[in-house]
Amino acid sequence: MESSSSGSCVQGTVYHWIVLFAVWLCGSQHVLSQKTTLEPKDKFLLSDPPIGLFDPIEISPSVLPHNPNPVEPLSPMYPNYTSYDPVLTGKCHVNFSALSYTIDKTASDCSIPLAPLVADVICCPQVNSLMNIFQAAYGSGNDTLALNQASANACFSDIMSILASKGANTNIPELCTLRPSNLTDAACPVKDIASFEKIVNVSKLIDACSSVDPLKECCRPVCQPAIAEAAIHISSGGANMFGSSSIPGSVAGIDVVSDCKGVVHSWLSMKLSSEEANSAFRVLSGCKVNKVCPLEFDEPSSVVKACAKASSSTPSCCAALHSYIGTRQKQIFVTNLQAINCATMFGSMLQKAGVVEDIYGLCDIDLKDFSLQAFGQQGCLLRSLPTDIEFDNTTGISFTCDLSDNIAAPWPSSSSVQSLSLCAPEMSLPALPVSPKSGSSGTSRTGIGVLLPLVFLTTTISI
Ligand SMILES: *[C@@H]1O[C@H](CO)[C@@H](O)[C@H](O)[C@H]1NC(C)=O
Ligand SMILES: *[C@@H]1O[C@H](CO)[C@@H](O)[C@H](O)[C@H]1NC(C)=O
Ligand SMILES: *[C@@H]1O[C@H](CO)[C@@H](O)[C@H](O)[C@H]1NC(C)=O
Ligand SMILES: *[C@@H]1O[C@H](CO)[C@@H](O)[C@H](O)[C@H]1NC(C)=O
Ligand SMILES: *[C@@H]1O[C@H](CO)[C@@H](O)[C@H](O)[C@H]1NC(C)=O
Ligand SMILES: *[C@@H]1O[C@H](CO)[C@@H](O)[C@H](O)[C@H]1NC(C)=O
């Protein structure tokens, strides 16, 4: 129902697909080399009908996904871990079963094989949300909004053990730059609920954040400024508590406000249901995630050399461009908006260095070229709205790709830069992301399959 109505109200150039991954894990310690030659029969498959047609990004004439080799579905990926009872420290006094909704979601979003590939876009935003919700659960019986260091150490360890027991990557602290101290918000002077509610206009905060609109929050933020305002209030409200301890000004100030934001998040988690809080935090993270290009483009001198001269030959220019982009994309999944940011950023670098022609167009560079590549010809861009990894025992592990990745990368120009205001397009997203589950249980799907060949994963699953 949901998928068919959203499908019919938006004339789509963009397809959402459920992507089922059969991921091959190799024990090797290397990060995968994208030049790995693969037998087509090793493919990593992916095939399932589209679950809706949306039109999230309106750039340039759309190009329908070319789908050269529809194949019959292969068996989906089933995680081969078995969950077990974690060994806990016994020093973290929290009813973890009350947090199972958030913990289960986090474990699947950070599942062993996929966590490194989706760290910034799926796993870490969800882990951060869990941290906030955990802090609130811990504190609610104790009039506090953050943990002391000793409890934080124990609880952090317990949380990681529980996640690992449910199949999450054990590398989360490194992937997400997370430490026990993230649970303490040590620098914020206000941590007890009573003082918090005295200082902060709580009704205003609740109004702004109780239901965060995923379509508007990134462009016309309502909750984010309310959180910032509350954080600034409590950070100065307790300023005198620093007494004479002379922490140098600006750096400490940033820490204080940032830790106070953690306290505000914790308070919100206490007031909202786990589901509401989780989805609010994921939207807020999504706004941050989509603003940046996660790839680093160092001096593209090889491309400039091959492409800057009017006399340069197209094949050598395109070869240089493809090879450069191939080495930049870091075998991570990016969102469609991140890919646009990357294309724009890199294009501007090239223009500054003297490349005048639209070499994206000349060389058929698509947005998906900035994402993890499978077989060098297909990619998967995640949607800009928060996405989760889904697991069920009939479809295996899946997440939703946005096959707008076959649209051409926009070459920056004065006019396209203007139309690339990332807000306007965000507005055209469907009001509710269709969950892969509801999509797959629907009856109105058309049977188009897409093949994403094997991503040969040689993940570094460390310690
Ligand atoms: C899971 O897969 C990995 C890599 O293929 C293998 O080393 C491990 O033994 C498997 N575990 C189970 C429980 O099958
Ligand atoms: C822990 O939480 C669960 C679910 O909310 C509840 O059923 C259970 O009684 C709680 N256990 C304790 C010891 O409070
Ligand atoms: C409750 O707070 C007190 C004082 O802040 C602290 O000493 C105690 O350990 C806390 N209790 C729990 C269960 O964290
Ligand atoms: C956790 O703490 C580290 C260092 O203390 C910081 O860099 C990181 O941003 C924090 N993470 C979150 C989600 O606050
Ligand atoms: C709290 O904020 C609301 C606006 O959202 C305002 O009407 C109200 O007066 C504020 N309360 C206090 C005590 O400042
Ligand atoms: C799938 O999971 C459900 C509940 O977790 C279980 O009852 C069912 O037997 C499972 N099906 C298969 C095919 O494993």
TrEMBL record:
**Keyword annotations for this protein?**
Signal
Give the signal peptide, or none: 1-33
Q: Which Gene Ontology cellular component terms are annotated? A: plasma membrane
Q: Where is the SPARK domain?
A: 89-235
This chain's source organism reads Setaria viridis
Pfam families linked: At1g61900, SPARK
Q: What is the lineage of its organism?
A: Eukaryota, Viridiplantae, Streptophyta, Embryophyta, Tracheophyta
**Record-linked InterPro entries:** At1g61900-like, At1g61900_C, SPARK
Q: Could you name the domain of life of the organism this protein comes from?
A: Eukaryota
Is the Cytoplasm keyword given for this protein?
no
Name of the molecule in the record: Uncharacterized protein
**Residues in domain At1g61900-like C-terminal?**
291-364
